[in-house]
Fold this sequence. Notes:
Elements: E1 37-38, E2 45-46, H1 58-67, H2 69-72
Antiparallel strand pairs: 1-2
The chain binds zinc ion.
Zinc ion binds next to loops.
Amino acid sequence: MTRTRGKKAPFEPGLVPPPGALLEWRDSQHFDRWQDRPCVLCDKPTPMRSHAGEPVHKACAVYWIAANPVEARLGRFASDTQSKSSQRATHA
Ligand SMILES: [Zn+2]
C-alpha cells in the first residue's frame, strides 16, 4: 500500500446510516457539475452521485435505505468518511 498525500483523496464510502437517518454527502465528488443524469431510483435528472458513481438524489438514497434496510447494509449508499482533521470548504 502506498500512502500518497495528494490532492485527490480516494473516494471511499464511510458508514451506512441507519434507516431514517440522513446521508452525509459533503464531498464535492458527490456533485457532478457537468451533467445531470437520471436518478437510478426515481428517474428524474440529478447531478448527485453515490460513491459508486450512481446518479441518485440524496433524498432518494435515504429513502431507499429506509425501504431496503437489509440490502442497505451492503453499502450501496453510504455517508462520507468522517475526517475531523482537515476540512477544506474553499472549493465552491
Ligand atoms: Zn431520485
